[in-house]
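Researcher: Re-running this chain for the archive, since the previous output was lost when a drive failed. Same request as before.
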Amino acid sequence: MHAVLRRRSDDSYLLDWTPSRALAAKAAELSNDRYRAILNLGNLKVSLQVLSHALPGTLSPRGAGTCIRLD
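Model: Regenerated structure tokens:
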């Protein structure tokens, strides 16, 4: 699996990854699409997006939610 974690701002981080083909072949719920998650520590929200190659030109599925901080 190839993953990139990068700071977007003082409060937010971007995690961008694509599961390996071997992993996607073993897990029925995974595909080799690209996934992105953004964590905002300022407002404790997270968003997730699937960037699918299967249906070009369509809107990618997205989700959003809130988090709690465990220190």
